[in-house]
Amino acid sequence: MFKASADVMLPTSIIGSLPRPSWYTASLGSTPFLEAMVNSRYREQYEDAVSCFLRAQEVAGLDIVTDGDAHYDEQVGGMSWQSYPLTHMSGFSQTASPAIYNVGAVAYPRGHILHDFLEARVFPRIVGPVGRGNLQYKAMWKVAQRMTAKPVKVGTILPELLAASCEDDYYKDPIERTWALSDAVNEELNDLADAGCPVLQMEEPQIHMVPVRGKAFGKLDVGDLVKVFNNTVKGLRSKTEVWCHTCWGNPSQQRIFKEPQSYQPTLEALNQVEADALTFETCSSGPGDLKAIGEIIKDKKIVIGVIDHHTLQIERPDEVAALIREALKHIPAERLIISSDCGMGREGMGRRHAAYKMVSMVLGTNIVRAELGLPQAECLAADERYSLTVAKS
């Protein structure tokens, strides 16, 4: 069900996370969100951070906004993306221990920045049947949505990555564990959709990773992973807009593959997921897959990344516009959404760089909107009336 992107041509958004303000020192840890919000210091810092994230997106002129993933704690490599569910769902131990990453990842040696990322994988173990526990996504969405009139998108990591992240003393095998996590996440997301959240984003199904990493757990092929995805979003599309986010990884804003990868081997499988929109990393990995994406994905909206989340270099508006024009050769404007490749809050980027990347995204999109005779988004950040530099007479 198209809700957030229904009435806007070439709508703009970001994938989710934004860099934490330096003054945001409060941590959630394993405390339930609603319990943490009873603490006046945490509540003030959390709400102020969400407000800053929303305002930065509004000043840039984005159409669909996020809360910047403000509930994530400040962890090495942005590990809170994975640790938050593992420390707030039921069925997990109260204490954490080092965990092996079971997705065929490279064993980065000591001396590589991503070795720290591997050492930061200290998670609780599964000790009983998993359940939604205290994820409390609905409460987080409400905090953000009551601060803005723009639709707020909420994202969550998907079950197969959670299943690959933790040690397990309860389930017989990782497949059983994955399906149990899928059922629990589905229950939480349906509650969130019932509350009125206009966009839910499913982050990183491992479908596109199979050609380069092999089957998940050596067992789940692309078809199996499509089934897991569809179970996780069961019942959602009649209530809200569902996005399926894919990229090639960015812990600590680093690339995890030596060479850019291609989506083409798994586009047919991605076309089978129960989602309204599919996201593709097309800035940092290049536009080479756009033709194939346009030929295969016909009944979903396509979200293209025009901002590279790995670098501090700000993309120029004309570069953004050129990438959108290239996409429009293969994807009709009414099915195209403009975004970042991935999140910009995975430890390596500052707030000012992220803010100007969003501004450049909107300015570049406005160039193409003008060429197509479409309304342009207001971008206060680029309004010359508010420049502090005195213009020459």
From TrEMBL:
CDD domains attached to this UniProt entry: CIMS_C_terminal_like
UniProt xrefs under InterPro entries: Met_Synth_C/arc, UROD/MetE-like_sf
Pfam families per the UniProt record, alphabetical: Meth_synt_2
GO molecular function: 5-methyltetrahydropteroyltriglutamate-homocysteine S-methyltransferase activity; zinc ion binding
Example of a GO biological process term: methionine biosynthetic process
Keywords associated with the record: Metal-binding, Zinc
Cofactor: Zn(2+)
Superkingdom of origin: Bacteria
The keyword Zinc appears for this protein: yes
KW Zinc (keyword) present: yes
Protein name, UniProt field: Uncharacterized protein
